Amino acid sequence: PAVNALSRLAIVHFLEPSDELGDPYYIGVRLGIENRCRNLGTEIVKVFHSDTLPDPGLLQSASGVIVIGKHSDNEIAWLEQHCRHVVFADFNPQSDTIDCVHSDVSQATRQILDALDRMGYERIAFIGSYEHLNGETQRFGERRCRAYIDWQQEHRKFKPELLALGESCDLGQNLRLETGYMLAKQILALETLPDVILTANDNMAIGTYRAVREAGLAIPEDIAIVSYNDIPVAQFLTPPLTTMKIHGEHIGETAVDLLLERLAGRDYTKNVTIATEMIWRDSCRKPESKSPSQAQ
């Protein structure tokens, strides 16, 4: 009965379609949802929104709603009020009543920094963004950025000049190629260059590659680059990009499974974490002791 229970699914996305195309990671999350729904014979309604909330009628006509990405407390409360069953994908709303599935990017950040530290990288720079949520801007609130600062401070290595953050932080738009390029130029203007730059996503890494090349430097000989997401183009860069793979498609598939469980009668809340996976390529040195597939 659970399979037929999900006859119509609404996807609520915080990015406009044109913006979503700019970040292949989110396309992966959506494809995971769509593939699972195709197998179930579920009809999908897509609702994109930036400033305005979706039409409640669209949501109420669906058996379940999957919300992709970051939303404010007001939006979350509104969605809970207007949806029969709602699951958040790629965002943890910190709620005791709402199901969600996401990856722990704070833990992933610590894993990356531990590995770079073991390999002897001393000056580790970070390029990322401000966090913008609930009408407030937190300069160091974004989870990867916060984990980077905390790790560096614990190891007594924190140098504020090695941290470059984009301010145009609405709706994920700060993690763009141009922002990565601009922030990398800022880091490359320092008197003492970093050994490695960690960028908050692969788009920013691509912008960073360009800035490093324009500065006449080689990757990874002069500066190594490490990132997050493992979008399809990452392996085709020169050199191929070392990146923490976040399994967007698995996040999407699991969100559908959580809805099915709710429709089948589960009456408690689930918060599912999908493990990340480090993909070592040639944009940085590789750990010697482990083969790439084991290097977590």
Structure description:
This protein is α/β, with parallel strands linked by helices. Helix content is 37%, strand content 21%. It has a six-stranded parallel β-sheet. The protein has a six-stranded mixed β-sheet with strand order 9-6-10-11-12-14, with helices on both faces. Strands 7-8 form a two-stranded antiparallel sheet. It is elongated, with a radius of gyration of 20 Å.
Counted beta strands: 14
- Widest β-sheet, arrangement of strands: 2-1-3-4-5-13
Overall average residue pLDDT: 87
Instruction: Write down the secondary-structure element order.
Output: HEHHEHEHEEHEEEHEHEHEEHEE
Largest sheet: 6 strands, parallel
Strand portion: 15-25%
The gross shape turns out to be elongated
Give the helix tally.
10
> Percentage of helical residues?
25-40%
Low-confidence blocks of residues: 169-174
Structural class: alpha/beta
Report how far the terminal alpha carbons are from each other: 39 Å
Rg computed from alpha carbons, rounded to a whole number of angstroms: 20 Å
